[in-house]
Amino acid sequence: MRVLITGATSGIGQQLTCDYAKSGHQVIACGRREEVLQELQKKYPEQIETLAFDITDRGKTVELLGQQEAIDIAILSAGMCEYLDVTEFDADMFERVFRVNIFGTMNTVEGLIPIMGKGSQLAIIGSLARLLPFTRAEAYGGSKAAIHYITRSLEVDLGKAYGIKVLSVSPGFVKTPMTDENDFEMPMRVSAEYASRVIRKGIAKNKRDIGFPWLFSGMLKTMSLLPQGMQVALSRRMARN
C-alpha cells in the first residue's frame, strides 16, 4: 500500500513512517525538515519517498500533494502545542496553534482529495485533550476539539462524495519531543512505538475512533459526560496538583 504521513520528522509521525516502511509499504514522508527526511530515506531507501513542505503554505501543500500518485492511506500527524498563561494573555498564540493544527491540516486535506479514491483511508490525529477544559490548554485543546468535529463531518461528506473513509485518532500523552517540553505530570504517558502500534492496528481494522491508551481514554470520555460544573471543578483540582 501507499501511505502518506505528515509530521514525519518527529514523534508519532516519524514512528509511523518507520513502522510502515519496515512492514514493506511505500511511504511518502512529509515534513518541514529536509535533513530529517533524508535520514529516514537513507534508512529505508526502497520504501520511503520524501516531500519537504510546510502545511501552513496552502499553495505549496496543494501543489506538491496534487503531483503524487494515488495513495491508500493518509495520516495527518503534523501539529503543534503551546500553553496559555492567562496573566499574560497572548491572542497571537491562538493564531499560531490554529494555523497549524486546523488550517494546515485542512490545506493538506484539500491537496489529498484528488489523489484519494474509493476505499482509501484518511486518519486525522487529534487529542484526548478535547474532552475536558484542561488548565492552560485553551489554544491546543480548542484546536483539537475543532479538528475532531471537522473530522466527524468529513467522515460524512468525503464518504458520500468520494468513498473516502475518515478516521479520528485521539492520543493521550505520548512521549515525543513535544511532550518532553511539558512541565507538568502526564499520567499514563505511552511510547511513540505504542502509539504507532495502536494507530496502525486501528487503521487496519478501519476503526472510526482510535483513542488510547484505552484506560485513560475511557476515564476522560466518562468524565466528559459529567455536568459542566463538575468538569470545571475536576479540572481546577487537577491544576492545583
What does this entry look like structurally?
By secondary structure, the protein is an alpha/beta fold. It has one domain (2-240): NAD(P)-binding Rossmann-like Domain (Rossmann fold, 3-Layer(aba) Sandwich). It is 47% helix and 18% strand. The protein is built from eight helices and seven strands; from the N terminus they run βαβαβαβαβαβαβαα. A seven-stranded parallel sheet has the order 3-2-1-4-5-6-7, with helices on both faces. Helix 3 (58-66) packs parallel to helix 4. The N and C termini lie far apart (46 Å). The relative contact order is 0.13.
Q: What's the quick description here?
A:
The protein is of the alpha/beta class and 241 residues long.
Describe the secondary structure blueprint for this structure:
Layout: E1 2-6, H1 11-22, E2 26-31, H2 34-43, E3 48-52, H3 58-66, E4 71-76, H4 91-112, E5 116-125, H5 138-162, E6 165-171, H6 192-204, E7 209-212, H7 214-223, H8 228-240
Parallel strand pairs: 1-2, 1-4, 2-3, 4-5, 5-6, 6-7
Helix pairs in contact: 1-6, 3-4, 4-5
